[in-house]
Each structure stands twice: as C-alpha cells, then as structure tokens.
Write a structure and sequence with these properties.
Blueprint (H helix, E strand, L loop, with lengths): L3 H15 L16 H10 L3 E6 L6 H8 L5 E5 L17 H8 L12 H20 L3 E5 L7 H10 L4 E6 L2 H15 L6 H12 L2 H4 L8 H26 L3 E5 H6 L1 H11 L9 H9 L3 H9 L1 H4 L10 H4 L2 H17 L9
Parallel strand pairs: 1-3, 1-4, 2-3, 4-5
Helix pairs in contact: 6-10, 7-10, 10-17
C-alpha cells in the first residue's frame, strides 16, 4: 500500500493537470544476442546446448528420458525459457530494467543493452549446473511449444542462435486424443460445463466413446486442438529450418516407437557425441518399457486413467466419430499427408 501511494498521487496530479493518466511505458524491443556476445557467454558456459520442441502429448517427455541415457548428454524439462509465459524475457522485459541495463552511465554495457547477456547467463547457469552435477558436456531442455509455435523458435534463436533444435511430431489425431484425455485428468478446474459432462459420462459409460459412437470432443474443442497441431507443426518446422539450418533435426514419434535404438543413435550423432556405447542399448530398451505418465495419471485420476489408451498408435481409429474425422480432415488433412500419416484424404 505504501509503495503504491506516491504513484497514485502522481496519477491524480496528472489527471488534474492534463485530464488523463500517462500511458504505460513499454520497453524497447529486446535485442537479439550478437555473435560476439555468444562467444563471450561460451567462454564462461562452454557446454553445447539443444532444445526439444513439439506439440504437447507428442512424445517430448519420452524423448527427453531417452536422450539423457547417453553418457555425454543431459536433459531436463519444462524450463519454458521460450515456450510459456512469462518466459526468459521476463527477466529484462521492464522499462526500469531496460534503463538500468543500457544507461549511459553504466560503463559495463559498453554503450549497448546488457539484456540479451543477462538472459543468456541466467539460462546457461540453470542448464549447466544440472549438467555439471551429472558430469555431461551436452545439455538441453524439453518444453512443449504448443502455445507459441513458431514464435518459440524465434525466441530461442534470439538468445541461443548457436544451439540445436529437435522437433518431435506425432500423428495429430492421436495427439488430439492424448491432449483431450490429459485435460480430463489434470485440468478439471478449467473445464466448461459441457466438457465436464462428457468426462463424467465417459467414466460412467465408456463403451460408446471407445467404439467411436460418442465423441469425447465438442465441435469447438476438436477445431481448436486440430488447428493448434497444424499451426505448431507448420510454424516450428518452417522457422527452425530457416533459423537453424543444419542444426535443426526432426523426427516422428511413431518412428521412435518402432525403432527406438536406431532413432536415438541418429539424434545423438546429430548432437555430435564422441561415441555411442553399446551398453546404452539396454538402457533404451528398459526406458521404452517404463510408463511414468500412466502411473501419474492413475495417481491423479484413477477412475479415468484405467480407461485411457496409453501410448498406443492409431487409437483415433476407434475413438474418432465420423464428425471428428470430418473436422480433422478439413483442418489438418493436407498436413497428415505431408508427414506420411496418410496417402490421401480417403480415410
């Protein structure tokens, strides 16, 4: 209260003198880090960095669990440096902070803006302290990018133009199912009345839903989820290819499930590991048989979890109603063909 009182007095005075409250100040656009600043940052934080992106429920967590089985590669998740508000830029996204970091009397900034270095140093410290404890030289974060899509890639490139980007894509129909069921499990407080009705009816009488006679989606939710998948895959792919070139790698979740060892070897080579020990193969096999997500769902909502298909490919074929198929085909049919999930629109 005491801190805001002077500000309220100033606002009142402004209204009396000018008849209006001064417009809120907005800081200038945060500059991208320069090549020289990247070199300076790497002198202190030398580990190679990568970021795993992908739509929610596309296998990002499985990929993170597998990628860190290599003795040189560390991964943790949900830092959301670039993928969910307030994001890393919140550290410097303030007018007063901007004035401080670029003020002419601040001789440490050499006439520039220290904001990109502050962001880079903060993220580097968070990433490398974990990697140091694990004794690994390559470190990355996985954070689903299904909120900001292509903007997430641009955000990353403004701070980590020297990093690598890995994007995992899953059939949008299975992704939509998994995303919907996750909402039933852990976002019940944000459900609409109609969503809650569908959830409760599914638990009480699951057979018609599991046989594709009743839909777990409303028309609105299906359109939103399908549209989000198309936007995420399309924008992430185009922006990552444009900004990262040969430091961008993508894969399909289905290929990872079918050939986990072969797919992981490709990814580790992409990250330029020194070698791939053969004994890591057994660890990959073991991780593929674990399902911590299913255990979490059972703990969170056991009445629903026992009914949900876990990690199955093609579950949409049983659960989608004709209306669900028609909506998804309308919105995402061409992208399904592009990613070789379908040969044409006759499905």
């Amino acid at each position: 209260m005491t801190e805001s009182f002077p500000r309220r007095i100033k606002q009142a005075a402004a209204v009396l003198l000018r008849g209006s409250v001064p417009a809120k100040q907005v800081r200038a656009e945060i500059p991208a880090i320069t090549a020289d600043e990247v070199a300076e940052a790497r002198a202190f934080f030398s580990r190679d960095k990568y970021f795993i992106f992908g739509h929610a429920r596309s296998g990002t967590t499985l990929l993170a669990r597998l990628i860190r089985l290599h003795p040189e590669v560390h991964c943790n998740w949900q830092a959301h440096f670039f993928t969910r508000l307030p994001m890393l830029k919140a550290l410097v996204n303030d007018v007063d902070v901007e004035k401080w970091l670029k003020h002419h009397s601040n001789r440490w900034n050499h006439g520039g803006d220290l904001s990109p270095l502050v962001m880079r140093a903060a993220a580097d410290m968070i990433l490398e302290r974990d990697a140091m404890k694990a004794g690994k030289r390559i470190v990355g974060d996985k954070s689903p990018s299904s909120v900001f899509h292509g903007e997430a890639v641009r955000n990353a490139a403004s701070v980590y133009p020297d990093a690598s980007i890995i994007n995992i894509v899953r059939d949008g129909r299975d992704t939509s199912l998994s995303h919907r069921f996750q909402g039933f499990v852990d976002r019940q407080d944000r459900m609409t009345t109609e969503d809650r009705r569908i959830r409760d009816d599914f638990v009480a009488n699951p057979e018609p839903y599991l046989d594709g006679e009743k839909s777990i989606f409303t028309d609105k939710s299906m359109r939103q989820i399908a549209g989000s998948w198309v936007k995420n895959v399309s924008e992430t792919e185009s922006e990552a290819a444009r900004l990262y070139g040969d430091r961008f790698y993508h894969l399909r979740y289905e290929d990872l499930m079918e050939s986990p060892w072969e797919e992981m070897c490709k990814i580790w080579r992409f990250l330029k590991v020194q070698g791939i020990p053969e004994d890591v193969r057994a660890a990959v096999d073991g991780e593929m048989h674990a399902n911590p997500d299913a255990e979490w769902q059972a703990e969170k909502s056991s009445d629903l979890a026992r009914l949900i298909p876990k990690g199955q490919q093609g579950s949409w074929q049983k659960l989608f109603t004709p209306r669900d198929k028609a909506i998804f085909k309308e919105i995402a049919g061409d992208l399904l063909i592009q990613w070789k999930y379908e040969k044409d629109l006759e499905w």
